Amino acid sequence: SQQGEEDPQALSIQEGENATMNCSYKTSINNLQWYRQNSGRGLVHLILIRSNEREKHSGRLRVTLDTSKKSSSLLITASRAADTASYFCVTMESGGGADGLTFGKGTHLIIQP
Amino acid sequence: GAVVSQHPSWVICKSGTSVKIECRSLDFQATTMFWYRQFPKQSLMLMATSNEGSKATYEQGVEKDKFLINHASLTLSTLTVTSAHPEDSSFYICGSNYGYTFGSGTRLTVV
Lengths: 113, 111
What we know:
- The complex is a heterodimer.
- Chain A has strands spanning 5-7, 10-14, 19-24, 29-37, 43-50, 55-58, 61-66, 71-76, 85-93, 102-103, 107-112.
- Chain A has no helices and eleven strands.
- Chain A is an all-beta fold.
- In chain A, strand 6 and strand 7 (61-66) form a beta hairpin.
- In chain A, the strands form two sheets. In chain A, strands 2, 4, 5, 9, 10 and 11 form a six-stranded mixed β-sheet that branches.
- Chain B is mostly beta strands.
- In chain B, strands 2, 4, 5, 6, 9, 10 and 11 form a seven-stranded mixed β-sheet that branches. In chain B, strands 1-3-8-7 form a four-stranded antiparallel β-sheet, with no helix packed on it.
- Chain B has strands spanning 4-7, 10-13, 19-25, 32-38, 44-51, 57-58, 67-73, 76-81, 90-96, 101-102, 106-110.
- Chain B is 0% helix and 53% strand.
């Protein structure tokens, strides 16, 4: 069943600006991940943050995790046209390694040149 | 790192025919493979979980007789869409918890 809920559903910004996407979930998790999906194509794993971590960086990406609020955010700094894609937060529930990953509905990000 | 190879990338088939999608783990043994479906502009929904050497586990609402899953070896899981209809047209993607790796997906169009 769907757990993650991304916000906003769609976001359009100018190239060079920062993009922030948020994700909320409902149950206890082992970790939370963010994936990118270009239109009609496969998934690209961006970053994983464990339940005992609060913030993680990878290049232009910054992810935060607040387990008390059951929420996470993905910040893309200095956005580029190539960042245009859908972004999904994905959770693995605690003890649920054998139950698959649960995808949020995604945020469709459009970077305007 | 862990790599999952999914084939074919896209397929167009006639209504009533069956289509097989393969997912191979190239550099690791996948005892479990997850199959997802994604309709246009929607998120990925887990359809079923395949387990090597045993029956697959299907999510509620997924017809097991229509979506046949076979996981005969530690490196190969297959999804067969039987008697495909236009409403089965979708993007199908497999994934493994090992390394959080996904196949590249298969776009199925039933005409």
